Protein: Nitrogenase protein alpha chain
Organism: Termitidicoccus mucosus
Amino acid sequence: MPYHEFNCSKCIPERKKHAVIKGPGEDLSMALPLGYLNTIPGVISERGCAYCGAKHVIGTPMKDVIHLSHGPVGCTYDTWQTKRYISDNKNFQIEYTFATDMKEKHVIFGAEKMLKQNIIEAFKAFPDIKRMTIYQTCASALIGDDMQAVADEVMEEMPEVDIFVCNSPGFGGPSQSGGHHKINIAWINQKVGTIEPKITSDYVINYVGEYNIQGDQEVMLDYFKRMGIQVLSTFTGNGSYDDLRAMHKAHLNVLECARSAEYICNELRKRYGIPRLDIDGFGFEPLSASLRKIGLFFGIEERAQAIIDEETARWKPELDWYKERLRGKKVCLWPGGSKLWHWAHVIHEEMGVEVVSVYTKFGHQGDMEKGISRCEEGALAIDDPNELEGLEAMEMLKPDVIFTGKRPGEVAKKLRVPYLNAHAYHNGPYKGFEGWVRFARDIYNAIYSPIHQLSFLDISKDEIPADKGFVTRRMLSDAGLGEDVRNSAALRQYTGRMDCIAALRKKTYPEFLPKPKPAFLEPAGAA
């Protein structure tokens, strides 16, 4: 087993089995790190908790719901506005967050009375919202508050409202994935089957495991609409609470993120006989195959193929343009869970980049298996890395860019490694044919940004390096510095000017931005 031991973690020998380098000709039995285990004390894990997995990932994207955390205010604050789960309800679920704000006295004497008061106050403050989800935290779970009894009492007094209770304390699992499971099962136990929907098509689906990050869902819904498919509910991006109560009437469950939502799909299959079909909205080939599978299920393959042909003809030339300029660039693929394997192979095949490392913070063994099987030999696979291990990996691998979350991404910047937000995107959506090109464009801009290349200059030394990234000497000379490029005082004065950014942005360097550019890359109205 080719385990990799980080120097920073030698004092924690258990960590050695959580990192593996994929060797030549090795199968998964020889290149699989341990995963989805309880965090080892002392590693300073960056994982989220089960409460975070339930509220932040699954629950919060519901658009017409008051999301109330029964616990200290820090819990709800930590899970507020950190992802771009947009909605057509004026982003109500992003704009507001609610907490009972438990204090020490409530832990000692109980907080059920305060919870009821908070529920009523929240509904009165937002009279147009008639639905609520209450999330349990560690504090309210440890003292044993009966949130369901309080919710039932409020619903009896206010029959126009409906309340869903999710018992998902932070300690409820090894990571946020434990919370995914809890809210999936709680929703089907409490709410599915309590409303009968209006069916308007012969082809009806639930779109499951989709959270509408920067509009991802809208891209996919457009394809479904063009195929004549009715999307009964979306679990849970831009999802309506009452629509999600009617999931039992779909003909097919179309599953996007298996790590967060396969549980409810499996239960819908067991309880209501609804088949599950896993799809992938990222990448031209995976998306095309997914649309064909859905079309085959309903017997409307020709509709799916028409969309594929039209979209491919429109966007493939632009994707190929970026592929030529990204070929061979090294990428650390460090997302949360399912994007590990959604992206690992397709970014190599369709964008030309080399995946030199994969990691997951809360994925299960199955996620790591799929991810490792789809990346190249020599890739470093890590389960539940911490900040020091991430820094050491970047120093060793020297990637051109990393795809990760905002917190580790900001750490990467300290090493002058650009990053793209794998969780909430930089300039999404990234799903769909156009979205995939947008993703390639963001990668290109991150790697070839003149401002990023300028960060390699060390103005604290007398000698200014001239061999970093872009041809630095010429880049500065073109911007007006001339022979003063080696004069650190002049450089400090130059870099302090706000117009240096604008000047550098206007420059075109043939070796990195070949001409002529395709017409679709020229600005509107350009000659």
About this structure: The CA atoms of residues 7 and 392 lie 8 Å apart. Residues 301-326 form the longest helix (26 residues).
